[in-house]
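Subject: Protein record for review, amino acid sequence with backbone structure tokens
Why sent: The fold of this protein is of interest and is recorded here as tokens.
Notation: Tokens come from a learned vocabulary of local backbone shapes, not from coordinates.
Attached in line: The record itself begins immediately under this heading.
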Amino acid sequence: MIGLDEAVVIIGITVKTAVSSGRFSICLPGTMLSDVFSQMNRETSSMRQPNKHDSDEIMDYLRASELPIIAELQHTTLRLSDIYHLHVGDVIDLGQPKDSKVFLNIGDKRWFDGTMGVFQKNKAVRIDKTYVLSEMGRLEDEGERQ
């Protein structure tokens, strides 16, 4: 039984066939719909629970991804005529000491500061300072490491 003050949903459906047509109505009490929707909500929320295996798989994929890092030595300005006349063996003076900082950028954002050096006979950069992205998108100093 449905009470006089109870909310209901009335669904009207028209059915047509080749030889006839008809209409029927369905009356659903609000309490039944509340129960149905709460059950559906429980089922969909359990489906949305993060799967540990999926998270591990995604992290493994991300860890194996390559990320280009640009090492920015310093900025300098040259006249176009100087660039035009550059030859193999020419030296561009950056006007900085040889042990000045190197800036490591990822996606146009500075993530690290470092110092140029050599590691196992290869050019390398030793990380001296790290930065993190704040919630506002600004770079904030994470502190210097020794």
User: Anything to note?
Assistant: The mean pLDDT is 78.
